[in-house]
Amino acid sequence: MNKIHVSVADWRKDIDEIRRIREAVFIAEQSVPPELEWDADDADAVHFLAFEGDFPIGTARLLPSGEIGRVSVLKDWRGLKVGDKLMEAVIGEAEKRGQTRQFLS
Question: In sequence order, what are the beta bridge partners of 58?
């Protein structure tokens, strides 16, 4: 297994990968209705992608309020601390942006 790393994503550029992961986790696995999964907050959020090598395997978003949400990891990569790495990256970015209070949705 390659080293897992997390990067800040570009919503416009990375939307296909973010959608692929969130649709697999929330819509397919957890039966979240698509109209609830996709909301206007995505446009204002800071998005993150976790990668194994060059392959995106997880995502999360940070809202201007400090709310962290839509944390998702593809099934085959769960249990490998991908979620931990996502959370560390989100919290680190929030603190860089002066968001001293973060909370999970």
Answer: 50, 73
Report d(CA 31, CA 21) in Å as an integer.
Answer: 14
Mean pLDDT over 16-39 rounds to 97
The pLDDT confidence band at residue 105, using thresholds 50, 70 and 90, is: confident
By the 10 Å C-beta count (0-12 exposed, 13-18 middle, 19+ buried), 92 is classed as: exposed
The domain of 90 spans 4-104
Q: How confident is the model over 28-63, as pLDDT tens digits? A: 999 999 999 999 999 999 999 999 999 999 999 999
Tell me, what CATH number does 49's domain have? 3.40.630.30
Other C-beta atoms lying within 10 Å of the C-beta of residue 61 = 23
How many domains is the chain built from? 1
Nearest by Cα to 6 from 99, 95, 71 = 71
